[in-house]
Amino acid sequence: EVQLVESGGGLVQPGGSLRLSCAASGFTFSSYDMHWVRQATGKGLEWVSAIGTAGDTYYPGSVKGRFTISRENAKNSLYLQMNSLRAGDTAVYYCARAHVGYYTWYFDLWGRGTLVTVSS
Amino acid sequence: DIQMTQSPSSLSASVGDRVTITCRASQGIRNDLGWYQQKPGKAPKRLIYAASSLQSGVPSRFSGSGSGTEFTLTISSLQPEDFATYYCLQHNSYPITFGPGTKVDIK
Q1: How far apart are CA B63 and CA B47, in angstroms?
Q2: Helix or strand or coil: residue A29?
Q3: What is the pLDDT of residues A50-89, one digit of tens each?
């Protein structure tokens, strides 16, 4: 079955760290750009990071320098290392696969998400 | 960074109504825009890519248009399963940005 399954969420204190994982199955993981997208409760979607097939990485200013995205193709896994966490990072974190074609680009597969709560 | 705005932020409509949602980009993004539908507790679902191309399996009552800085998502005849929140997303340049969303609920 083609799917993405996130794990690693939980409760962490402000200033703490957490590592999220996303296990991919049913497709050739190494061939796809992968992303993390988050959503605070009752709020909109926010793009968090991306990693290309060549390992190139991208971040918005809100997490740059604090979050690190990485991938391990041999394990069909995507990761998000989150440091210096703040209350504003509290959200459900989704792993998403990007379909990238010559004239097409979209998120075509999402996980169910993992909840990260930053609170003392 | 490219900022995305959506209007309205919410709307109430009845089954059978025609609904139009507008998304604007702070600078030109060609047609590098998609539309996603999200229901409570679920991951987003893709509807439209490249501003106007319907994703496979998405009902033809959904359509998208626009280019540059102004885009629209139209639902020609609202169905009960269409009550949800809709987001536009630009992928013209990093950082990728979503619009703030438009919640469509039952009138």
Answers
A1: 9
A2: helix
A3: 999 999 999 999 999 999 999 999 999 999 999 999 999 9
- B95 in contact with A at a CB cutoff of 8 Å? yes
Mean pLDDT in residue range B15-35: 97
CA distance A50 to A68: 10
Say whether pLDDT at A103 is over 90.
no
Contact call for A44 and B50, based on CB within 8 A:
no
Q: How far from B49 is each of A8, B8, B31, B54, B94, CA to CA, in Å?
A: 31, 21, 9, 7, 17
Chain CA centroid to CA B17, Å: 16
* Cβ separation B43–A113 shorter than 8 A: yes
- Least Cα distance to A59 among A45, A71, A69, A72 occurs for A69
Q: Using the beta-carbon criterion (under 8 Å), do B43 and A112 form an inter-chain contact?
A: yes
Torsional class of B31: left (φ above 0), alpha (ψ -120 to 50), beta (otherwise): alpha
10 Å CB burial of residue A67 (0-12, 13-18, 19+) is buried
The answer to whether B33 and B89 have CB atoms below 8 angstroms apart is yes
Which three-class secondary structure string do you get for A63-114?
Answer: CCCCEEEEEEHHHCEEEEEECCCCHHHCEEEEEEEEEECCCCEEEEEECCCE
Q: How many helices (H) and strands (E) does chain A have?
A: 0, 11
